[in-house]
Amino acid sequence: MTDATPSSLHTVGPRPRRRTWAVVGEKALEAVIRASGVSAIFFVLAIFFFVFREAAPFLFSDEFKPFEFLFSTQWYPTSDINVRYGTWALTVGSISVTALAMVLAVPFGLGAAIYISEFSGRRQRETLKITIELLAAIPSVVWGFVGLTVMSKIIVALTGAPVGVNLLNGGVILALMSVPIIVSIGEDALKAVPDSYREAAQALGATRWQIVYRVLLPAAKNGLLAAVLLGVGRAVGETMAVLMATGHAVNLPHSVLDSVRTLTANIAAELGEAPAGSPHYRALFLTGVLLFCITFAVNVTADLAIRGRRRL
Amino acid sequence: MRGDNTIVVQDLRLAYGAREVIHGISFEIERNEIFAIIGPAQSGKTSLLRCLNRTIDFVANATVSGTLLFNGENIRRVKDIFSLRRRIGMVSPLPVGLPLSIYDNVAFAPRCAGLHKKSDLDALVEKCLRQAALWDEVKDRLDSLGTALSGGQQQRLTIARALSHQPEVLCLDEFSIAIDPVTTMRIEDVLKQLRREITIILVTNLVQQARRLANRTMFLWNGEIVELGTSDVIFSDHPGDRKTYEYVHGIFG
Amino acid sequence: MATVAPPAARFAKTALAVRKKRAETIAKWVFFAMAAAMIVPLLAIIAYLLYRAAPSLDWGFLVDMPRKGMREGGIWPAFAGTLYLVVISLAVAAPIGVLAAIYLNEYARDNWFNRLINLAVINLAGVPSIVHALFGLGAFVYAAKLGYSILAASLTLAIMTLPVIIASTREALASVPMAFREACWNVGATRWQTIRSVVLPNSISGILTGVILQVSRAAGETAPIMFTGAVFFKAIRPGTLFPYHLNDQCMALSMHLYTVSTQVPNVKDSIPYATAVVLLATVLLVNVSAIGLRVWLRARKRW
Lengths: 312, 253, 303
Hints:
The complex is a heterotrimer.
Chain A: H1 20-59, H2 66-71, E1 75-76, E2 84-85, H3 88-119, H4 122-137, H5 140-159, H6 167-192, H7 195-203, H8 208-219, H9 221-237, H10 240-245, H11 263-270, H12 279-310
Helix pairs in contact in A: 1-12, 3-6, 3-9, 4-6, 5-6, 6-9, 7-8, 9-12, 11-12
Chain B: E1 7-16, E2 19-29, E3 34-38, H1 45-52, E4 62-70, E5 73-74, H2 81-87, E6 88-91, H3 102-113, H4 118-131, H5 135-138, H6 151-163, E7 169-173, H7 181-194, E8 199-204, H8 207-213, E9 216-221, E10 224-230, H9 231-234, H10 242-248
Parallel strand pairs in B: 3-8, 3-9, 6-7, 7-8
Antiparallel strand pairs in B: 1-2, 1-4, 4-5, 9-10
Helix pairs in contact in B: 3-4, 3-6, 4-6
Chain C: H1 7-10, H2 15-53, H3 59-63, E1 66-67, E2 72-73, H4 76-107, H5 112-125, H6 129-143, H7 150-174, H8 178-186, H9 191-220, H10 223-226, H11 253-262, H12 270-299
Antiparallel strand pairs in C: 1-2
C-alpha cells in the first residue's frame, strides 16, 4: 500500500552550510532594508522641519501677531504703508470651496459606492471601478484647465455672471476630483461589512435597498466617514485646480459667484514674486505650516475612524 | 538518564502578555520514541511546540522562562536559530503547500541550508517524497504547483518538506485534522517507520491516534501536566489521575 | 368546508411586495444615475478637449520645438523635461519605498517606534502638493544648495511619491497569506530567504502596479516643480534625446499647460488644448497599462 520502504534519514552526509558571502550579503541587505524603513519617518519630520525653518523668523518676529494672522481678513503683503498678513479670507476661501465640493461629491460618491458594491453586476463593476481609477488619475492642472475654459463658459451661460472663475467653478471641479477617493474608500467600507449581515437580512425578507439603508450604512458608518474625511483632505490640499478655477480675489465670498482664493492657491500665486528671505516669503511659509497642520488633523481623524471600523 | 534524552524541559513558563498559559511544567522526551501530547483545546500544546523550535519568537508579547535542553544544548540561547529549526522540524495543522513547484517545495529547505548541487537535491527530493508516501503520485509532475494538490497530498508534501532538512526531532501539531482518514493512516504508517531513526512529538486531540502510535503520552490541561506515562497506563481503566480517565473516555473535553 | 385559497393565488404578489419591489427598482436607478454622473462628465470633457485640440494635434506637436514664445510649434522640450523628472524621481523613490515597505511589513515588530513610522507614512501621503513645493524649496534648492534644477525638482517629486509607494507595496506584501511565511520559518529559512522565495515573487504584480501609478502622478503634478526647477522657457539643443543636464532647469508638460493657459496672451486657442490632451493622454496611457498589468498578473495567481 505504501511506497518503497524509506531508506535511512541520516545517510545524506554532513549537514550543508551556507556560503559565507550569502550570509554576509543577506545581513547587509537586511541592514539596508531597516535603514529604508526608518527613513520614512525621517522624511516626514524633514518636511515639517524645512518648512518651519523658513517660516520661523517671521513667526518669532515682532511683526507677527497670532490672532491677526489667523483671523484677520486683510492680506496686504506687498503694501507700502499697511503691510498685513491676515489669512482668514484665505481660510474661508478654502473652507467654502471644500464645503461646496463636499455637498456635491459626498451624495454622488456614496451613491456610486453603494451602486458598485450592492447593485451592479460583475462586468459593470469592473468597468465602473476602472473609470473611477482613471478619473482619479487626471492631473490637477488639467482639471484647473477644464475649470478655466470649459466650466467657466458653462457657468457664464447658465447664470449670466460676468466672469466664470469663482467659488462655484472651483467647487464643481473639486467635487469631480474628490469623488473617486470617496467612491473607492466608501466601497471598501461597504465590502468590509460581512456577508452574513446581508444574508441574515435577506432571510428576513428585506430588499436590497432596505439592506443598504437599515443594515449596511449603519454598519459601515466609520469607514464611510473616513471616506468623506479623506475626500475633504484631498480637497483642502488641492492647489493647481483651485488656483486656476476660483479667480484671484482675496476676500470673503458673499455668493457662489464670487471669486475667492484658497490658502493653497495663495502660496502658489505669490511665492514666485516674494523675494527669498523677506517677511512676505516667510509669511507664505507660515501659511504652509498652517496647511500642514490642517491636513495632518484631517488625516489622523480619518485614520482613527478607519481603525475603529477594523476593530469590529 | 538526563544526559541521554533528546529533549529536557524544566519549569517552563509561557505567558502572552499578562496571561500565563503554561504554568511551570517539567518533562523529558527520550530518543527514538513517539511522544504524544494530548489534551483539550487551549491547553498550551501548540504553544509548547513553538517554544521548542523557537517560533514563539514571532509572537510579539510572548515571554518564556525556564530551561529547555535539546541534546544538552540550551534551546533559548542557541547561536544559530535556523539550524535549530532544521534539527527540530514542525508540521502544522493546516496543510500548506508553498506556491512553488513540488520539487522546489521539497528542495526549499536544503537550498536555504546551503545545498545547491543538483544531483544531491534530486536524490534528496525523491527520498523525502518516498518517505512521505507521496512519490508515486507526483513523480511525473514535479514541476507542477504545490498549491494545486489536494489537502491530503499537501499535508504529505509538508511532511516531505519537514524531512528534507534531516531533523532529529519531528513535531506534528494535530496533523490530521484537515485531511481524510486514508491519508491519515498512510502518514501514521510513515511515522511508525520514522521512529526508528528520529524522535517524534505528536500533539493531537484524537485520543485514539495517540493510543495507536505513542510509546508515552502526556496529558496537558490548562497549561499543566496532569499525567505522563506509558500508553498502556494512560489509556487503561486505571491511569494515575482521575481526570486522565475522564478525558480519555470522553467524559469531558 | 375549509376555505383554502386556490394554489395560484397563494403565491400572488401582495401589495406590500409590489411596493417594496418598486422602491427597490427606484433605488437601483437612482444609485446608477449617481454612478453615471461621474462617467458622463468625464467622457464629455475628454471629447471636448479633443475637439478643441484637433487643429494643433499632430505628431509634429510632440517632437517639434516651440516657436514665437510658445504660440506656435511643438512642445518637445516640455515632454522631454517631464520624462527626465519622472525617471529620476522614480529611480529614487521606488527602491527606497519598496525596501521601506518590506521592512515595515516583514521585519518590524509592533512597538511604539514602528507605530510612529506608520503614522508618519500615512501623514506624508496627505500633505498638500504646495507644501511639498515649500519643502523642496527650503530643503533641496536652498539647504542642499542644489539651486533651481532638475535634481531639486525630481527629489521633491520623489518625496511626494514615496509614501504612496510604501503604502501600495505594503498592501501587496500583506496579500500574501501568513501561512506561507510560517511554513518557511518552520523549515529554518531566514526572513530574507522567505521574502525572496515566496513573498516577493507573489506580490511583485501589486508592487509594480503601485510604482507605475506613481509615474502618472509624477508626470502630472505642477506645484512641486514650479518652484524648484521647472520653468516656462528654456533653450535647449534640438534633435537630441538627452537635452538637459541635471543642474539645468527644465520645461515640463504640467508647468507648460499652466503657463500657456494663464500667462501667455494671444495664443492660438488649440495650443493649450493640445497640451492638455498630450498630458492627459500620457497619464491615462500609463494608468491603463498599470491596470492591464494588474489584470494579467492576477490571472496567473499561484494559490
